[in-house]
Amino acid sequence: MLAHCSSSSSSEREEGTIDDRRPLTPAQIVPHQWDGVDTSIDAEPPELLSPEQLDRYVDTVTELLTAAGLEVRTPDERDPTHLEVNAPTGRFTVELDIRDDRTAEWSLSGGDEVPENTTALDLASVVVALLR
């Protein structure tokens, strides 16, 4: 989708208007707080991380999630690559198992967040809201 301005030349355009030759850019989808997180590990070879690199990778993911306002904890200190993530007022928890090849297995749980006698419509609504 292109936006069009009414002025006749780009030099006459008001500040903050959109040049009619450029497509609109979507709003930023990452939190502004991420600007302060060092993500240099993302540029480091090899693709298979050493133990020290994996620790830094997990730390970076943790910092990014924390900067986004999420709570991150490591339930087992012997396995720092397993993280549990949730929003402070959220209903769900994401469990991340980060691997040295920069992949991760994750699962989403809601505990007993769906009460007894929930209608089919309400249950389906929760699932649709999660996946959209």
UniProtKB/TrEMBL annotation:
Chain residue ranges for the region called Disordered: 1-38
Compositional bias of kind Low complexity: 1-10
Composition bias, Basic and acidic residues: 11-23
Superkingdom: Bacteria
Protein name: Uncharacterized protein
Gene source species: Lipingzhangella halophila
